[in-house]
Amino acid sequence: MNGEGTMKNFKEESGEIDWRGRPSKSNKHGGMSAAVFVLGLQAFEMMAIAAVGNNLITYVFNDMHYPLSKAANIVTNFVGTVFLLSLLGGFLSDSYLGSFATMLIFGFVELSGFILLSVQAHFPQLKPPKCNMLSSSASAQCAEAKGYKALIFFVALYLVALGSGCLKPNIISLGADQFRKEDSKQSRKLSTYFNCAYFAFCMGELIALTVLVWVQTHSGMDVGFGVSAAAMTVGLICLVSGTSLYRNNRPRGSIFTPIAQVFVAAITKRKQVCPSNADMLHGSKTIVLQRVSVTSPTVGTLLHTEKFRFLDKACIKTEDGNQMTETPWRLCTVSQVEQVKILISVVPIFACTIIFNTILAQLQTFSVQQGSSMNKRLTKNFQIPPASLQAIPYIMLIFLVPLYETVFVPMARRITGRDSGITSLQRVGIGLFIATFSMVSAAIVENKRRKSALLNETLTIFWIAPQFLIFGLSEMFTAVGLIEFFYSQSLEGMQSFLTAMTYCSYSFGFYLSSLLVSLVNKITSSSSGGGWLSGNDLNTDKLDHFYWLLAALSFVNFFNYLFWSRWYSYNPSLSLTSPPTQPSEVRESDKNGVET
């Protein structure tokens, strides 16, 4: 079959449709002209959620009157829940609703949460009485939010979490679906899209951490939450405006059923012996690797691999002659089994990014409190809101991301022959290595800040800028690389769910942060005093010790990642859908996550 025939069959089998359910047309639907509307939602939704999340600890501490360690855990649990719920959004999208419908429904859920937060922040009777939590005498007397006041707060907060969580993986997958992975020209545009999506993310974060946080600080949290609601409304308008241009994938039914069938069939036939010749397995197809791309795996073709051979037993045909017993729960195809192998193989890569996101949690909680105890004055009449420090890396990144795409990628492409310059796993590894130094910087500065405070000296807030800058650089590599990796390993019908695994890593990272804070306090506390992070006063706590602990964990985690990234093997049919610039045959670097 020639390339033109292959592409024709792909269009017929792929199930791509427009908003009316009709087959999509390549000259009318998809491409960057459609993806730009998704990027608009990405920027405005990030602007709305970042303005809430990044300054939430200030609101929880000062207005809801929760102690510092408890306030930090409320924030990390909220952010963790946002990212954990991305799995729900990915599942609903791939299985039943489709990306566009999922985004529209949960976009309005998120909007309702912002509105409810704004209403509560506006009316004093819905909050605890005003009280200065920073006063040592008053902090023990300030009444925490309880009863209906706490109920309203947490309902509003978790409406935002539900909406944002279900939106996030679909924003990425709907935008990426506008480019076909099997087309070499669009494959290069897909890599560009991921960088553009991160640029939109950075712009949203930057505006949230400067303009919106300034509004929250000077006009009140009620106005700040209201501006978040307005930004979310604009984002939804952007999404709806591109309706007629989107190329949509049909939902394929429950994505978990085929996975469960593989495990049931393999366990049922556990006593069978796997044949030495993979062609004897059910659904095995021989594909000749030529100087052109192979058939896209989106039409259901995955080459057999040697890992997890136990699962291959699900593809063995029994010789009892009774065809009625070979139901889908007893006999699976090679492609179905290989899809499960991919899901199992990406778990260690996913796990290695959890510590990375635990570091991110500190920059959104304790580092903000660090800034609160430092000299925030920039001029006589202007003070920097502590939460706005998180804007520092995004100011840098709005310049670095375009440079990465226009300078670094073309240079690396000439060396490696890859459309994306370096592999997605290499990109993740670079970011994980750099992240360690963010916590090293944070520990050194916190030690200096505490010693200065004990001498009645106040450091300028810019001392903690390096930890944000270093982490921002690491995030440019790790966050984009991880999203690109998971999307590239997904088959049609699982794009949103696998993309959601990226956000699930954020979730586990923030939950791990809450667990570490509690464990560290318990282990380091004694009868004569509290733990490293037990008080509301950072000058008496040992936050720098906690930062050193995270730096050590991050360093060990980097070497753990090196092991698993070299262990990981791309399925050949997936790696060939995005061939090198000069395609010939499967190279050693296509078989391993990190080139050797």
UniProtKB/TrEMBL annotation:
GO CC, alphabetical: membrane
Keyword Nucleotidyltransferase: no
Transmembrane segments: 30-51, 71-92, 104-123, 150-171, 192-215, 227-246, 342-363, 383-404, 425-444, 464-487, 508-525, 545-564
Basic and acidic residues composition-biased segments: 9-21, 585-596
Membrane topology, from the record: Multi-pass membrane protein
Localization terms from the record: Membrane
Region entry Disordered, spans: 1-28, 575-596
Origin: domain of life: Eukaryota
Entry-linked InterPro entries: MFS_trans_sf, POT_fam
Molecular function terms, GO-annotated: transmembrane transporter activity
Similarity remark: Belongs to the major facilitator superfamily. Phosphate:H(+) symporter (TC 2.A.1.9) family. Belongs to the major facilitator superfamily. Proton-dependent oligopeptide transporter (POT/PTR) (TC 2.A.17) family.
Protein name listed in UniProt: Proton-dependent oligopeptide transporter family
Source organism of the structure: Heracleum sosnowskyi
Lineage of producing organism: Eukaryota, Viridiplantae, Streptophyta, Embryophyta, Tracheophyta
